[in-house]
User: Fold Pilus assembly protein PilP from Pseudomonas pergaminensis.
Amino acid sequence: MSLPRLNLSALTHNAAKWPLPGKALLGCALAAVVFVVGDMVYLSPSRQRLQRVEAQEVALQQHVTQKSALAASLETRTHQFQLMRAKANELLQALPGESEMPGLLEDIAGLALANGVLVENVTPLDEQPRPFYHEQPVQVGLTGAYHDLAMFLSRLGGLSRIATVHDIALRRDGKLLRLDLLAKTYWQAPSGAGPGGQGLGRQAFVYDASGLRDPFQRLAIQVGHLPGRPARAPDLARPRGVLETLAVDQFEMVGTLSRGVQAFALLRAASRVHRLAVGDYLGPDHGRVTVIHERYVELVELFPDGQGAWLERPRTLVLNVNS
Assistant:
């Protein structure tokens, strides 16, 4: 059995005789076909272009918002830039117009003498040119007690000239400590603007050894230090005793001895025990015994301050309970 063939020409020829619902259905079908074909041919590409334009509009709006924020902060950024440039110019003006290596070496020697530190070696290294300044390093080796070395570094950082400290190495050297460091001083490059050298108003760190323990010494034989204070100059013509040829750090208190109301301190150095009374001298820095107690000895040492005056600094030797 075969199905009848659909004759579209006869169907459309007789469409005028269709009932009204058929005509409405045919009209709707033709309208749908026209809409689909028109959408595919004309509206779909236009819709894609519209989506791209809308995306570009959103991106442009975000870009405009960012630029508006930058424009609003332009005045603040300009002010910050001016402050930074002024600060950079101030730093350049603070640099001296020529090398200050001789002055730095004098400062190192003076600070070492004022703080009871022995300078073992000073070795200036090659000059290092930089874009806006020159850098002159110098290798320094010092020997002394822990608090003396810390006070030396503190005052080195507080100099009016610009000097920085690098590559610090600390190690034990017998009963003392060995400090090796690299100090650097700076001056303007030849193209720098004008002479400087006045230094910057900066707050320097000040080391205060009072109440602090030397971490390289046992607590029982701790040697305490206090900040120096102005004192009268010592009698440089006075003959020096044998005990003044040895550093105070080489002595350790091993006991006391009493004779009536007079007390003596027993100090050991180089395998020998020495007896000292109040008023006796000890150490190379004009140290003089002021108090003798059964557990400690107090003395006062004198140091030049590098400006023609002298500083007095108390010092304490504590009994070594293991002696």
